[in-house]
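User: Predict BHLH domain-containing protein's structure from this.
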Amino acid sequence: MMLSPEQTDSDLPWSQSDAETMLNDIKVGCITDEPIEGEGKTKSLAPQTLSREEKRRRRRATAKYRSAHATRERIRVEAFNIAFAELRKLLPTLPPDKKLSKIEILRLAICYISYLNHVLDV
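Assistant:
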């Protein structure tokens, strides 16, 4: 899709890469009635029907999608690690700077909560 000089990408209902993806899907999905060179055969004009799973696979195969997914995953893992670090700061250990795995942090948190409940009950 060509833009006039005064038209920007933000004026479009979809981004350029979305348009390219749609064009690729149309090229793959639609077949012309023109004869294939050398074979003298024609293909039908009916579009190729894709399953929902195939459409999802094609959408996920784009570099833009993979990049966005990797960014979201990085942010999720970072938030997860920050939460563990904050929990770790609240748990008493000897020595205090001892490195603990995530499962050790969770087990220690369970024991510490049980201990605090016991202290409150007494």
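The radius of gyration is 28 Å.
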